[in-house]
What does this fold into?
Amino acid sequence: MRGTFDRFLDVARQSGPVTVLPEKTRIALQVRMSFAALMPRRRWLNGHLVLARAVESDRFTSVQVFSPRNVLHAFRLTGPEDIDGEFAGWISEAYQVGAQEHLRS
It folds into this structure.
């Protein structure tokens, strides 16, 4: 799963600097606020992204709306190949939420 984590972090860093916050049960990624979290398991990574909109996709295991511009999208990644162009776009979008860019528009 290290390769999957590294791929996720590389994609996130393409948007700008990222602070990695290792915690007891997860690894959070933060700019001004946390925009993603990963929970490593033996054979996959569970995680979530915070987006400013709800996205309907079978790739998300659940979507929780906390406010109109604060929507948590849970997922499971089984390998680095799961982070394709579509998923990378969501990571980039989540980064903008972490930088609070969505509040300026």
Summary: The CA atoms of residues 4 and 79 lie 5 Å apart. The chain has a mean pLDDT of 95. DSSP finds two helices and six strands in the chain.
